[in-house]
Amino acid sequence: MHSFEELLSKFNAFFEQERLKGEPLSLYQPANYILDLGGKRIRPVLCLLGNELFGEIHPDAYKIAAAIEIFHNFTLVHDDIMDRAELRRGKPTVHKKFGASTAILAGDVMLIAAYQQLSCIQPALLPVILEEFNRTSREICEGQQLDMDYEKVDVLDMQAYIRMITLKTSVLLASALKMGAITGGAGKGNQDHIYEFGKNLGIAFQIQDDYLDTFGDPAKTGKKQGGDILENKKTFLLVKAMEILQGEALENLRQAMGMEGEEKIPVVTGLYKKAGVDVWAEKLKAEYMDKALHHLDEIAVLSKRKEPLKKLAAYLLNRDY
User: Fold this and answer.
1) What is the structure's pLDDT at 227?
2) How far is residue 86's CA from residue 240's CA, in Å, rounded to a whole number?
């Protein structure tokens, strides 16, 4: 069994040979630009971990992992355009550096490149992997549209928000694990359990991300505290606070969200604490972590084979940065 770090190194070595090539350079350079920004590459490595949970890593798992990584970065290029974001991983976003029209085309060619990776896997495996990849891709688009729709809604139901987060963020983590498991020869029951492990882990990770943005130590997170508050971004904290607060406190929160500038951060943070959503978020994260680990425990393989996934889950959800 390999650790996350070992598989990341193996994937990076493979992925370096899969750079997008072609003419004009003005199209392929922007695509490679975002791929070269790196990131943690959790999703492709999850695919490899999902494979190795059930057997020796098959060469096709690297191609599927590459497709996942290219697709994920394609979604980031287009998301950044929609969000008018200026920075991604501390560097100018593709549309800021190369222009919006080129960024759209670069994203398009990345999507095509993802499917080219999948087209190279063994024919017997292709239909089931393609079905899973297509379903997940469609769900991510649905989640992104819901996210945009919810920007126009003042009060949002928590279950609706969780569904949006599941589609936008969690399903790709879950599907990466499942496609790896399929490649490793897992049965239907084990595929379902590893998918649920990834889905619940993804939700827990998003809860933590929302929490750290408001209550984390900037020296450790590397991000300005309260960025989500400044952007009036829908988060687990905001949705729950709007649910809990009543009367004057709720009106104060509404007014605070309408404020401009950084002075709104301590006001909103104070109202969050008044509602107790900081403590609530920690408990909810633990609930989803427990659900994830339950499904991991239910997978019918030797416990020692699950250790790399347990260690990764612990790392992702016990970090304070």
Assistant:
1) 85
2) 29
CA dihedral 58, 62, 68, 74 (to 10 degrees): -160
End-to-end CA distance of the chain: 27
Between CA 285 and CA 52 the distance in angstroms is: 27
Closest CA to 289 of 319, 256, 321, 247: 319
> Residue 64: how many CB atoms within 10 A of its CB?
29
Yes or no: say if 242 and 156 are a contact pair by the CB < 8 Å rule.
yes
Residue with tokens 């790896």: 180
Quick one: which of 56, 46, 290, 300 has its CA closest to 175?
A: 46
Enumerate the β-bridge partners of residue 92: 87
CA distance 139 to 164: 9
What is the Cβ-side half-sphere exposure of residue 114, based on CA atoms within 13 angstroms?
A: 24
Q: What is the 3-state secondary structure (H, E, C) of 129-143?
A: HHHHHHHHHHHHHHH
pLDDT given for residue 41 in this prediction: 94
Give 128-155 pLDDT, tens digit per residue.
999 999 999 999 999 999 999 998 888 8
Task: Give the global pTM.
Answer: 0.94
Total Cβ atoms within 10 A of residue 87: 10
Element (H, E) at 205: helix 188-215
Find the range with the poorest average confidence among 86-90, 99-103, 114-118, 205-209. Answer: 86-90
Residue 58 DSSP code: P
- DSSP lists the bridge partners of residue 87 as 92
Tell me the helices (H) and strands (E) count for the chain, helix number first: 17, 2
The encoded tokens of residue 46 equal: 């999850």
| Residue 88: strand pairing partners | 91
Is residue 62 within 8 A of residue 45, CB to CB? The reply is no
